[in-house]
Amino acid sequence: MAHDPISDAVLELLRVADPKVATILAAERERQDTTIELIASENHVSAAVMHTMGTWMTNKYAEGYPGARYYGGCQHHDEIEDLARERAKAMFAVGGVPARFANVQPHSGAQANTAVFMATMQPGDTFASLVLKDGGHLSHGMSLNFSGRYHKPVHYPLHYDPSHPEFERIDYDAVRKVCLEHKPKVLMCGYSAYPRTIDFARFRQIADEAGAILVADVAHIAGLCVAGAHPSPFPHAHIVTTTTHKTLRGPRGGLIMTNDEELAKKIDRSLFPGVQGGPLMHVIASKAVAFGECLTPEFKTYSHQVVRNAAALAAALMRRGYRITTGGTDNHLMLVDLRTKDANLTGVDAENRLVAAGLICNRNGIPSDTRPPKLTSGVRLGTPAATTRGLTETHMETIAALIDRTLSDASATGAVRADVRALCEQFPMPSMPDGVNV
Predict the structure, then answer these.
(1) Do residues 99 and 223 both lie within one domain?
(2) Is the same domain home to 314 and 350?
(3) Phi and psi of 234, rounded to 5°?
(4) From the candidates 34, 61, 82, 152, which is the catalytic residue?
(5) 327: phi > 0 → left, psi -120 to 50 → alpha, else beta; which?
(6) Cα angle: 29, vertex 35, 39; to 5 degrees
(7) CA distance to 60, 135, 228, 364, 377, per residue, from 372 (Å)
(8) Domain assignment of residue 139, given as a range
(9) What is the distance between the alpha carbons of residues 151 and 142, in angstroms, rounded to a whole number?
(10) What is the predicted pLDDT for the residue at 432?
(11) pLDDT given at position 143
(12) Strands 239-243, 68-69: parallel, antiparallel or unpaired by DSSP?
């Protein structure tokens, strides 16, 4: 499979400088080339985004913020960070008006949430979030995480009654009840395994009534929000956090935004020097490139195709007898309840079979799952990476058939793997754009 010449040159350099690393990297490139990535939190970056991370911006310490660094020689680092911040604010413009403040320094979404918690709460303060096993994130109150260890989480549920028309969707009345009872300092919304549209306006009404700060963690749906394929968290959320990979299709990292100047000051102090030291300037440069891509018409087209592909994949799986939680999806992901197809098939078994067949996914608990997290009764599937490679609704029907063949017959894995390789040959990984001579 053809690759961009910079990637080839990097491998040639490493074959001389460090053959062991070169061997591992070459194997990983081959793995990505020949498999279909269906993990909802992963994507394939452009050559421009990827190679920006490998530039000389990695050589510099730049503690502090633009115009207020603790090291000399940071003028160009100020420029690139300012550019990333302006593009981030433009991405989340509402009615043509950009967001007011953006911090592009978080190393991850979890680091972004850590800084926000430090800026808005004291140790022991209460915050509200979704029941974690129903699709929340570990930084939203898991007992072993900082959020659950140093703060007091109270959780709101999904609708658990199968006869309810909103079964397995957010129970907004329960959100209100929990918040009015416990008066949390922060109300969290935004999830890692929730396939439906989030009503940010309704969350803001509840937050205002309870006197809480609304924090929207849109790590999974940020790219969809930017492109108008999902409602924006602004102007409803006081604070927005996100990763910069996933649907934003950027480098691995985090981002925090707000329209409140006082909150912005607290967040900046909480991130640096609160929880981080020097920023990863090579990654911030790459974020700037990715955010520039997000502002193009092509990215909007891509994001809407991600949603169409997810709906098509969910429908194709349901036609084959799999239950999709909530009955479908509004965004880029779905949770597949395996029990309706095979009561004995666990999520870990399904993950292992599918990975062996070249269909990369992850086990995932489903709402009210009776199996432990290491086993689960479901898998989580997503379409961002497959859509990046150019697959459309027709190919989702093909992928659903490949998934069903693999899970219905363990002996079919080898044949499916060959079919996946053939599909990957038709849709290669992102490479250099036309007109670039290296």
Answers:
(1) yes
(2) yes
(3) -90, 145
(4) 61
(5) left
(6) 100
(7) 45, 14, 36, 10, 9
(8) 58-294
(9) 10
(10) 66
(11) 84
(12) unpaired
| Cβ neighbours of residue 262 closer than 8 Å, sequence gap 6 or more | none
Q: Where are the beta strands (DSSP E) in 280-346?
A: 323-324, 333-337
Domain count of the fold of the chain: 2
Annotation says 266 is catalytic = no
- The amino acid present at 253, given as its one-letter code, is G
259 and 332 fall within a common domain? no
Pairing verdict, β 239-243 and 213-217: parallel
Q: Which of 63, 82, 166, 393 is catalytic?
A: 63
Rounded CA separation 113/256 (Å): 8
Which of these three, 268, 294, 320, is where a domain ends? Answer: 294
User: pLDDT value at position 42?
Assistant: 97
What is residue 206's three-state secondary structure? Answer: helix
Catalytic residue among 85, 87, 252, 339: 252
Express the helix, strand and coil content of the chain in percent, nearest 5 each: 50, 15, 35
Strands 333-337 and 323-324: antiparallel
Question: DSSP strand E in 124-276: where?
Answer: 126-130, 152-156, 186-189, 213-217, 239-243, 254-258
β-bridge mates for residue 220, sequence order: none
Amino acid at 184: P
Q: Please classify residue 393 by burial: count the beta carbons closer than 10 Å to its beta carbon, then call 0-12 exposed, 13-18 middle and 19+ buried.
A: middle
Distance of CA 255 to the CA centre of its chain: 12
Q: Is residue 154 part of a domain?
A: yes
**CATH number, domain with residue 254:** 3.40.640.10
Q: Which residues of the chain have pLDDT under 70?
A: 1, 432-438
Residue labelled with tokens 């960070």? 81
Looking at 257, 277, 294, which one is the last position of a domain? 294
Q: Is 61 a catalytic residue?
A: yes
Query: Are residues 269 and 342 part of one domain?
Result: no
Active site residue 191: no
Same-domain pairing of 305 and 355: yes
Question: In this structure, are residues 112 and 248 in contact, taking their beta carbons and an 8 Å threshold?
Answer: no
Question: If you write DSSP's letter for every residue of 117-135 in order, what string do you get?
Answer: HHHH--TT-EEEEE-GGGT
Six token digits for residue 318: 């349901």
**243 is known as an active-site residue:** yes
- One domain, residues 392 and 263: no
